Amino acid sequence: LNKEIGDIMNADVVIIGAGPAGIFTALEMVKKGSKQKIIMVEKGQAVENRHCPKDKTKKCVNCKPYCHITTGFSGAGAFSDGKLSLSYEVGGDLPTLITPELAQETINYADRIYLDFGADEHIEGLGNDEERKEIRKHAIQAGLKLVDCPIRHMGTEKAQGIYYAIEKYLQEHGVEMYFGYECSNLILENDVCKGVSVSNGKVDMEIYAKHTVVATGRRGADWLEKLCAEHNIAHAPGTVDIGVRVELPAEVFSRLTDELYESKIVYRTEKFEDMVRTFCMNPRGVVVNENTNGIITVNGHSYEDPAKHTNNTNFALLVSKHFSEPFHDSNGYGESIARLSNMLGGGVMVQRFGDLIRGRRSTKARIEESFVTPTLSATPGDLSLVMPKRILDGIIEMIYALDKIAPGTADDDTLLYGVEVKFYNMEVEIDENLETCHKGLFVIGDCSGVTHSLSHASASGVYVARYLEQEYFNR
């Protein structure tokens, strides 16, 4: 809710960023009957005011100053396919800070809250143990590792309604929300964080608070890195995932998706011993554009509504690159590859697997003659002119390995869209309470570099909220 505000405000807790981590911080405090004054600041819009022009234009128009798909209440969660990975082993390193047992308990707790607000009760990937054992055996024989992880799938269209219900619940229970405001700096006195400075371009404001929770998600990576450098908050280079999105007939992966829904598969390449993994599998889904800091990358969605199902399944194949000295800018490396794709293709590029193997670019005619009908309008091209050889070789190796458990994966007409990049924040040094070296300053969710998923980010919000309530009653 935007309303006239003064130059100075006071609160008990100020939360910067209204993604899953920030939302669940406020939500858990409210559900515990908190007496503390909570303010949320979000540079994007309320979930009901987030609209992508692509719905009308049919193509990405590179919205400024931010993308409505990735920014606003619920972050990228409202417009993603809404998958909750319900295992502490998948989605981040939160267990290393708070123990695996507590991480799993907190993930389960956050999951129940999603259920309370309308998430589907069905969990994918459970049951039929014998069939899953058989799939795992074939995966091992092909040099692949199948990672078990129950999935609760909210669906792209359902996630928005769930987050809208949460937004209204928080507002009705006294959480003050200010949309269109961006955090410009921290207010520090010695080694204690006293609050934040924010602005909407017209009004500058200082919010003083006993506790400041930074939960800006992956989109806040560059901003947070500058903040850490300015205020001597220890941080280390993070990881970037670079790869392609694969699209093929749904029948090719039906055995895996029917039993597991999302198959989380890992492969170690023979040539370089790099790790390649599947990510964000969308049975009968669609391939979509994603705008990250003005760079067009590729992603995938799937829907709960059968009327929106397609004949294709899509998933990402990603290679993780973690850099050490002297290079620090892993996200910049990923961005440079994505920009090259945008330069050559005017956005996302698509290539038939057969053309890639034969060393030739795909053409519009070859794509149209393909037995796989693309669900995204992309520019036919040559991914070998964009992707580093080491990464592309690893992806090709894995496609052949996947072909052994899902025959047809390495078919000539399988489509590869590039570039898909998953930007992760640098790893901020935080303690077991998710607090930085500055007392009262917490960094949680994906912006911390500790979590990489909806479920882990949500759990980190629950965890820090419990700590803030305990601190409040101990004063």
Structure overview:
It is a single chain. It contains 13 helices and 21 strands. It is of the alpha+beta class and 475 residues long. It has an eight-stranded mixed β-sheet with strand order 4-12-13-16-11-19-17-18. Strands 1, 2, 6, 7, 8, 9 and 21 form a seven-stranded mixed β-sheet that branches. β8 (192-199) and β9 form a beta hairpin. α1 crosses α6. The longest helix is centred in the last third of the chain and has 21 residues, at 454-474. It is globular and about 65 Å long. The mean pLDDT is 90.
Provide tags for this entry.
475 residues, alpha+beta, globular
Largest sheet: 8 strands, mixed
| Structural class label | alpha+beta
Shape: globular
Numbering strands along the chain, what is their spatial order in the largest sheet?
4-12-13-16-11-19-17-18
Helices, strands, pairings?
Layout: E1 8-16, H1 20-31, E2 38-42, H2 54-57, E3 83-85, H3 94-98, H4 100-116, H5 129-141, E4 144-147, E5 151-153, H6 156-172, E6 176-179, E7 182-189, E8 192-199, E9 204-214, H7 221-230, E10 235-236, E11 239-249, H8 254-260, E12 264-268, E13 275-282, E14 286-292, E15 295-301, E16 312-322, H9 330-345, E17 349-352, H10 353-358, H11 364-369, E18 379-380, H12 389-405, E19 415-423, E20 427-428, E21 441-443, H13 454-474
Parallel strand pairs: 1-2, 1-9, 2-6, 9-21, 17-18
Antiparallel strand pairs: 3-5, 4-12, 7-8, 8-9, 10-20, 11-16, 11-19, 12-13, 13-16, 14-15, 17-19
Helix pairs in contact: 1-6, 1-13, 4-13
